[in-house]
Structure prediction request, 319 residues.
Amino acid sequence: MAFFSKSFFTIAVLLSLLSCTAHGQLSPNFYSNSCPNLESIVGSVMSQITSRNPSMAAAILRLFFHDCFVNGCDASLLLDDGPVVSEKRAPPNLSVRGYEVIDAIKSRVEAACRGQVSCADILALAARDSVRLLGGPSWSVPLGRTDSTSASLNVDLPGPDSNIGGLIKAFNDKGLDARDLTALSGAHTIGQATCGIFRNRIYNDANIDRNYAFLRQQTCPMGAGPNFNLAPLDATSPNRFDNAYYKNLVKRKGLLHSDQELFNNGPTDWLVRLYSRNPAAFANDFANAMIKVGNLSPSTGWSGTRRSNCRSVKFSSRY
Ligand code: HEM
Prediction:
């Protein structure tokens, strides 16, 4: 009888695990047995790094978005050149930073739970912590992604010159709607952009506050100048995850053309106004949309690859 109930229990657990993987479901409890301290390890490394250099939070948040938008959240963007040509070489990824932060977290996680945790899950947790540590919302991160063994130079991320139609379409193609687009763009409440990316906007756009354009022109001269001079995406509070980004858009002080397109007499104007007045609505929609981004075509489950070095497929465990 004892044997029966024990086997029954084991089979029930196995069946529930199998059904989990078969449906590709992620779960916040995925590592509760195999790596119970995972979240506190990621949180403590992120806290140390961002207290020294808050700009790394922005770097990690962007890294997560650029990984997930291209073939799902599979940590393919973390791969260096090797058997595969690195996704880091794709033009929209050339200014993505923060890879060494993920390396630092990964080595702490490997020391605690060797071969258990995917790089894709570490990135999803680190992105959540980036937002939380700069004063933004927090959420429970569904886990259980596996890592890719390939990368793609075919990066279909929308560019900073996109108009509202192009932005909505790019997000719709991934199953994300205009509300997700508007909330997720609020990530630009932190971080920086380079002069070469926003020069056209500050000299040629009509929908820009003149004093703001003039201010930005001081460090981003016209013509083939210093393309790499940086400016904050949110001039008001660049290191705080708040709703100032939307307040800026209402004042026509968006740094990127694509930012200001969200408030340019179009279908998302009402959402920009809503988030500019209601920080809780923004926080709630941002957290929900981040979970949706984290669910983009993940490969999941116990069977699959987990890389012990996020930069290389040579160090993979298959389960
Ligand atoms: C809606 C379409 C989007 C476009 C067109 C876009 C474009 C850009 C561009 C051009 C930059 C500056 C890059 C440079 O100057 O080299 C940037 C920075 C950034 N983006 Fe986006 N982005 C978009 C959506 C997102 C989303 C959804 C997130 C995250 C959820 C995000 C997070 C960031 C962050 C945090 C930075 C600053 C990075 C840093 O300081 O290193 N972006 N984005």
Q: What stands out?
A: The longest helix spans residues 2-22. The radius of gyration is 21 Å. The first strand starts at residue 192 and ends at 194. The beta strands are 192-194, 230-232, 305-307, 316-318.
